[in-house]
Write a structure and sequence with these properties.
Structural class: mainly beta
Strand content: over 45%
Number of strands: 11
Radius of gyration: 15 Å
Shape: elongated
Length: 123
């Protein structure tokens, strides 16, 4: 019913920038939060940044001052502007949405994941 589609990943040199996008589609009733996670090879998936319905943003310590998360509520889209990228930022970045759907009857709330978009920071 709900699909999250990420885009914007790729290869970038250290110090460069990328902008990731994630759009949610389907019979969405309410989006409570949208966020970005990442998973590097051999490591656990970790929270990068997120934003709530009230536009409150939160960031992991390792990206504060470099990354900016924002939402386009009309398009059900969350963005991640990544600046001053470092090699340690290399990972697959996943979009996550905490939302409710309404196919009929009462809305049902759950979390959805995108397929991920790879980001490689290397010279």
């Amino acid at each position: 019913q709900v699909q999250l589609v990420e885009s914007g990943g790729g290869l970038v040199q250290p110090g460069g920038s990328l902008r990731l996008s994630c759009t949610a589609s389907g019979s969405i009733f309410t989006i409570y939060a949208m966020s970005w996670y990442r998973q590097a090879p051999g490591k656990q998936r970790e929270l990068v940044a997120g934003t709530t319905a009230g536009s409150t943003a939160n960031y992991a310590d390792f990206v504060k001052g470099r990354f900016t998360v924002s939402r386009d509520y009309a398009k059900n889209t969350v963005y991640l502007q990544m600046n001053s990228l470092k090699p340690e930022d290399t990972a697959v970045y996943y979009c996550n949405a905490d939302l409710s759907t309404w196919p009929g009857g009462e809305p049902l709330r759950r979390t959805y994941w995108g397929q991920g978009t790879p980001v490689t920071v290397s010279s």
